[in-house]
Specification:
The protein is mostly helical and 248 residues long. The protein has one domain (17-246). Helices cover 71% and strands 2% of the residues. It has helices spanning 21-35, 48-55, 58-82, 87-118, 134-165, 167-170, 174-206, 219-246; strands at 8-9, 12-13. The protein has a two-stranded antiparallel sheet with strand order 1-2. β1 (8-9) and β2 (12-13) form a beta hairpin. α3 runs antiparallel to α4 and α7 (174-206) packs antiparallel against α8 (219-246). The two termini are 24 Å apart. It is a multi-pass membrane protein. It is found in: Membrane. One of its GO terms (cellular component) is membrane.
Length: 248
C-alpha cells in the first residue's frame, strides 16, 4: 500500500477509497429502515385533517432519522478510515444491518412516547400499552430499545477494535492508532450505558410499587442523557492528550 498516495482527513489517511458490496448493502439497509419511519404511519392521508395529524409525527421521524444517521455515519467513517474487507469485518457489518432492521420499530415507539411526554401530547405516542400491565409493557419497550442501541454500539466497538488489532497490517502511525483507540473507547462507553439502561429496566420491574413515580419509571431513558455528558468528557480528555500521544 502506497500511503503517500492516500487522501488525508484530519491527519488520518483514508484507506477505504472504493465502495465495497458490503458497504452498499449497509447503505441500502439504512435507506430501507428510513422508509419505515416516514411520517405517514399506516397509510397516506386523504383529508387535510389527516395531513395535520400526520405532520405531528414529523418530530418523531426527525429524531429517529438523526439517530439512525449517526450510526450509519459511524460505520461509513470506519469504512473510509480503514478500508477493511476481511471475513470478520463482513460478519460484523452484516450483523449491523440485521440489528438496524430489527431496531427501527422499537426506536420509533420509544421516541414517539418520549416526545409525546415532552410536548404534552402534541406529538402522538405510538407506544400502545395494556393498562393492566403498563409497567411491564413500558419497561419491555425500554429493554428492546436498549438492546438495539447497545448491540449497534457494541458492533461499532468491535469493528474499531478489529481495525486496531490490524494496525501493523494497515501501517497505522501513532496519530491513527490514537484515533482508533479513541473510537474504541467511545463505542465501549455507549455500549456500557445502553446495557446499564437495560439492567435498570429489569430493576424497575422488580421494584416495589412504592418506589414507582413519573421519574423512576423513565429512569432507564435518563441514562442516555448521562451518556451524552460522559462522551463529551471522554472526548475532551482524549483531545487534551492527543498531541502527546501522536509524538510518543
Amino acid at each position: 500500500m502506497d500511503l503517500s498516495q492516500l487522501p488525508v482527513e484530519q491527519g488520518f489517511r483514508l484507506r477505504g477509497q472504493q465502495v465495497t458490496r458490503v458497504e452498499t448493502f449497509v447503505d441500502a439497509a439504512f435507506a430501507f429502515s428510513l422508509t419505515l419511519l416516514v411520517i405517514f404511519y399506516n397509510e397516506l392521508p386523504d383529508t387535510v385533517a389527516e395531513l395535520r395529524d400526520a405532520l405531528k409525527r414529523v418530530p418523531t421521524f426527525a429524531v429517529c432519522f438523526l439517530l439512525l444517521s449517526l450510526f450509519w455515519t459511524s460505520h461509513n467513517r470506519w469504512s473510509r478510515l480503514f478500508g477493511l474487507e476481511d471475513a470478520k469485518s463482513t460478519v460484523l457489518s452484516l450483523a449491523f444491518v440485521l440489528v438496524v432492521l430489527v431496531y427501527v420499530y422499537p426506536l420509533r415507539m420509544v421516541t414517539s412516547s418520549g416526545l409525546s411526554l415532552l410536548t404534552g401530547g402534541f406529538v402522538p405516542s405510538e407506544l400502545g400499552m395494556d393498562r393492566s400491565q403498563w409497567m411491564l409493557d413500558l419497561q419491555t419497550a425500554f429493554i428492546v430499545y436498549g438492546l438495539g442501541f447497545g448491540v449497534l454500539s457494541w458492533l461499532l466497538w468491535r469493528l474499531n477494535a478489529h481495525a486496531l488489532r490490524r494496525a501493523d497490517d494497515l501501517s497505522l502511525d501513532a496519530h491513527e492508532r490514537f484515533h482508533a483507540q479513541s473510537e474504541v473507547g467511545v463505542y465501549a462507553l455507549m455500549t456500557a450505558c445502553a446495557f446499564g439502561s437495560v439492567l435498570v429496566s429489569f430493576a424497575m420491574l422488580a421494584a416495589p410499587a412504592t418506589w414507582l413515580n413519573n421519574f423512576t419509571v423513565g429512569l432507564p431513558m435518563w441514562l442516555y442523557s448521562v451518556m451524552g455528558g460522559l462522551l463529551w468528557t471522554y472526548r475532551a480528555r482524549r483531545g487534551r492528550v492527543a498531541p502527546k500521544a501522536a509524538t510518543a
